[in-house]
Each structure stands twice: as structure tokens, then as C-alpha cells.
Amino acid sequence: MTYLGGHGDSYTLNFSRPAAGVYVQLYQFLRLGKVGYSTMIQHQLKVSDMLRERLKKMTYKGKPRFVMMDATVQGCACLPVVAARLNPELNLQYDDIDLQHAIAEHQWYVSGYALSFNHPLTEERQPLFTDIPGDKTMFRVVVKANINDEMISHLAGAIEDSLSFLDKMNSMFISSAIVRNKSAHGNIPFAVSEEFFHRPKEEIESGKFGEILGDVAPEVAGMCFNAVAALKNKIKKDIVGLSSTC
Fold it and tell me: Are residues 143 and 217 in the same domain?
């Protein structure tokens, strides 16, 4: 199954659950009461508004970075959740799943989702919505009660840094969406990730590794190689910087 930008080989349904959570929730009701819960939710809504406004102010080449997908009533969010997707007008080579992985390098986990699903019987890829193509993506941030203003400011900064990193790679970036179903030369097999990227660049670009790449054009193979090489160099620099500070 597809979930949070990845693929799970199996899933289970659990019908027997411990009752500890029920007792904890009862304690929370008695401890906080209606006023306490109202205060907590107002705090979560305030902090989520901070992040939402930061995202709205982010631009790229004069256009908004994101399209906000929050449900609002008179301009106010209904839940302490920030949902958005990269602005399709920007024609970026990366998507929200790629952004999720880049943000994770800053120790923040932001859930990215593909706006499509595999039919449980036919395994055919189908869109979730009628007004958005199935190859698009989105992400969401659930603001919990322990998130404060300083932490949300750090998250916003992590998103900006991640976008800057992805922008530098944009021209040579093979997005996860392309790996899924967007390649003009056919789907890129997932087996490429391990065996393919350990081959010499000249061998890849010459097409000698075609038995793994299938019908992917040599120029696309070179773009794959360059993207991974840039990522490896960044990781090496981070490791050197970390070791020098220890």
C-alpha cells in the first residue's frame, strides 16, 4: 500500500487494543476540564496560524511557493493542521514527497501524500480527487499541544532551507513523482536505486546499463546520476562539519 510518500509491503488490522488510552483520556478530562482543553486548542490554532502565514509569504520567481489546502471558515482554520502543496504553476522538478525527505534532514517529519491510490482489486493507479490530477502531491503538518512559537519558527526555517537545497538541484532533479509515473520515457524501475547509482557515470550515460534502466533515455540516466551525486556530496560535507565540531 502507498502511505506517507512510501510503499508498504503489507498492513494489518488490529481489533484488540489496550484500554490504557481510555483511562489516560479520562484523567485528562478531569485534570484540564473544558476551560483547559479550550486553552490548549486555542494555543494549537495560534501556532498553526503562524506556520500557515510563513508558508503564504514564501515565494519563488514572484509567485507563491504553496497552494494552501486548509479548510477554513471566515478565514480561520477549523483544525490545528496546516495542509498545502507546492504551487503547480512553478513547474518544479521536485514534489511534496521530495520536500518531505529534505525536511527530514532537519529532524522534522512532515507527512507527504500522493493524491492517488492503487485500486485494491485491479492495482490500477487512480486519482483521489476529480479536480486534481493523480500524479500531484501534498503535505500536512499536524500541530500538537507541545509545539510552541520557537519550534514552529525553526520548522519554517527548515522548510525554507530545504526549498533552497531542492532549488539548487532543480535542473538535474529526478522527482519521486517521475519515478512513480511521470517519466516521458516510461516508468523508472525502483530496482535502479541500489544497483544503478553505484555504476560509473560514463557507463550509465552510454546506455550500457540499459538492462536495468529499461527504456529510460541516457540523458535521464545522467540526470539521475547527477542528482544522487549532489546529494552524496552534501551528506559528506555535513559529516565533515559535524566531526569538526565534536
Answer: no
Output the tens digit of pLDDT for each of the chain's 246 residues: 556 656 666 666 666 778 888 899 899 889 999 999 999 999 999 999 999 999 999 999 999 999 998 877 766 778 899 999 999 999 888 889 889 989 999 999 898 888 888 888 888 888 888 888 888 899 999 999 999 999 999 999 999 999 999 998 876 655 454 454 433 333 333 333 434 444 454 554 454 444 444 444 444 555 555 555 665 565 556 555 544 444
> How far apart are the C-alpha atoms of 37 and 30, rounded to whole Å?
11
Structure pTM? Answer: 0.64
CA nearest to 199, candidates 214, 210, 190:
210
Whether residue 112 sits in one domain with residue 43: yes
Same domain, 167 and 188: no
